[in-house]
């Protein structure tokens, strides 16, 4: 069922350039992490052609590797939750991060690989939002700009920066992050009004990042959210929302109606926001922020993953206690008009060093998502098989 506004035919159009207003980070927490910051900058993002990539056997089938997907064929994107590779100078991973993502590289493979980068990539330029000496219970993370290469080695192609840590080292740190990502050939999304368009097998995929922090698309301003998504539908065939939403902590796995707050911050109403952007034309919603896995539901035939949990916390920057260690890689296949065509969830966990590894023997993240989906969404819950396959209810 396609209840979305009709899309304009875009194939063969000139390359699109989108001008963005600036992204600013303000504060938050990662199971006991709090922070605050402000700033602004400008950037540009154009249509970016993604080279075809093989999809792992455990992921949903994607369209054959041809120049463009034809009617009835699908493309597949993959996505993860929160990524912190380490924090300079004292919490960097072994071997300076070399091989950090080796265990999950094959599981990430798809036509378009996305992740939520929850830290700046910057040197010692820019002041920490936590001050000197750091304020109690304030956490500011940064990894060297060269760590963008580790993301490339993992297969990532597009990173979301709409979250509470991307400006841990101020506006300069954010500018350094953008520069490092672009130098490595990585696309990014997350600044206010930013629509990042990637061309995948002839299909234009727009990715738009939201959070509750100034400088990003505001998930609490539903009118503005609808407007930017409606604009994205005129510039692409498929629209994917990346959103950092919801309260944090090991007890925050369930999704309930209403706004969620954390350390006095309004972290949005996840259900209302997700339904609003789908009503406006989004084809999938990828959530992160609570640092735990949450359930999945379908709304108007579109998949909503409310949180993909913690993916990486290098240098022990993220807690791996209890359910906080579990995350996953979501694969979603869609047709060129955005119709859901299949999905799969692959369980991951953070090991004792905070590196992501596949939990293929136990699939504990999968079991948790299945249980939470059934408990929270009833008739709209995603049907999730023991093999990780995802289908609409019924």
Describe the structure.
- This protein has 394 residues and is of the alpha/beta class.
- The protein has a single domain, classed as Metallo-dependent phosphatases (Purple Acid Phosphatase, chain A, domain 2), CATH 3.60.21.10.
- The chain is built from 6 helices and 22 strands.
- It has helices at residues 105-108, 148-154, 170-183, 222-235, 270-280, 364-377, and strands spanning 17-20, 43-46, 48-50, 74-84, 112-117, 158-160, 187-189, 196-200, 203-211, 217-218, 238-244, 261-262, 265-266, 284-288, 296-299, 302-305, 310-313, 326-335, 340-350, 356-358, 383-384, 389-391.
- Strands 4, 5, 6, 7, 17, 18, 19, 20, 21 and 22 form a 10-stranded mixed sheet that branches.
- Strand 8 (196-200) and strand 9 form a beta hairpin.
- The longest helix is centred in the middle third of the chain and has 14 residues, at 170-183.
- It is globular and about 55 Å long.
């Amino acid at each position: 069922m396609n209840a979305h506004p009709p899309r304009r035919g875009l194939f063969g159009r000139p390359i699109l350039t989108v001008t963005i207003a600036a992204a600013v980070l303000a504060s938050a927490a990662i199971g006991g992490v709090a922070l605050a910051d402000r700033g602004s900058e400008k950037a540009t993002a154009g249509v970016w052609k993604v080279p075809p990539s093989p999809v792992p056997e455990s992921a949903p089938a994607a369209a054959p590797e041809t120049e463009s997907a034809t009617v009835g064929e699908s493309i597949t994107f993959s996505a993860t939750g929160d990524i912190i590779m380490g924090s300079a100078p004292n919490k960097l991973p072994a071997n300076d991060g070399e091989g950090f993502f080796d265990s999950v590289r094959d599981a990430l493979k798809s036509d378009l690989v996305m992740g939520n980068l929850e830290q700046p990539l910057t040197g010692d330029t820019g002041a920490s939002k936590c001050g000197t000496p750091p304020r109690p219970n304030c956490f500011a993370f940064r990894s060297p700009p060269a760590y963008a290469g580790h993301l490339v080695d993992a297969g990532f192609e597009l990173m979301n920066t709409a979250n509470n840590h991307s400006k841990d080292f101020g506006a300069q740190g954010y500018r350094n992050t953008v520069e490092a990502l672009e130098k490595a050939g990585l696309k990014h999304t997350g600044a206010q009004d930013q629509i990042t368009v990637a061309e995948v097998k002839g299909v234009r995929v727009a990715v738009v990042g939201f959070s509750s922090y100034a400088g990003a698309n505001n998930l609490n301003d539903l009118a503005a959210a609808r407007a930017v998504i409606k604009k994205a539908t005129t510039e692409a065939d498929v629209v994917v929302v990346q959103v950092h939403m919801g309260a944090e902590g090991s007890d925050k796995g369930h999704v309930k109606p209403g706004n969620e707050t954390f350390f006095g911050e309004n972290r949005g109403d996840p259900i209302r926001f997700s339904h609003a952007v789908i009503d406006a034309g989004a084809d999938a919603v990828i959530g992160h922020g609570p640092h735990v896995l949450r359930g999945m539901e379908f709304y108007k035939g579109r998949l909503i993953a409310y949180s993909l949990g913690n993916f990486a916390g290098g240098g022990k920057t993220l807690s791996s206690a209890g359910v906080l260690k579990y995350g996953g890689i979501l694969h979603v296949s869609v047709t060129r008009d955005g119709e859901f065509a299949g999905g799969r969830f692959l369980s991951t966990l953070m090991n004792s060093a905070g590196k992501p590894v596949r939990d293929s023997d136990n699939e504990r993240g999968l079991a948790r998502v299945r249980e939470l989906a059934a408990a929270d969404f009833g008739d709209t819950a995603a049907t999730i098989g023991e093999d990780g396959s995802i289908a609409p209810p019924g």
